[in-house]
Design goal:
five-stranded parallel beta sheet; 7 strands; Rossmann fold; globular
Amino acid sequence: MLGQALLGRSILVVEDEPLILMDLAKIFKDEGAEVTTTNTLRHALVLVEHDGISAAILDHVLGNDDSSLLCLRLRERGIPFMIYSGYKRTEGACRGAPHLSKPATGDAIMAEMENLLRGAPISN
């Protein structure tokens, strides 16, 4: 366990590869976070409207879509997010977000999420 930064947090995981989605969910659940997952941009845009999301981790390319609209909405709602993608660069609303290239270790993913959440209040 790297720390207590995820205990009680609600993490949105948006990933279209089923095995990666399951791995990410497990990483965060094992650290005490509540996890909501989806594999489509359309569903993610609905989920992001729910109150209580502490942070999100997104694949940049989701099927035929990219996560630009989702990044924009996360920014508008003040929800911190990070990109976990095989693509090295992101543009538009996603540019400037913390970015981890696939594949990354569970420890690297956790460390980046903890950095993202540092100082953010726990949502109820």
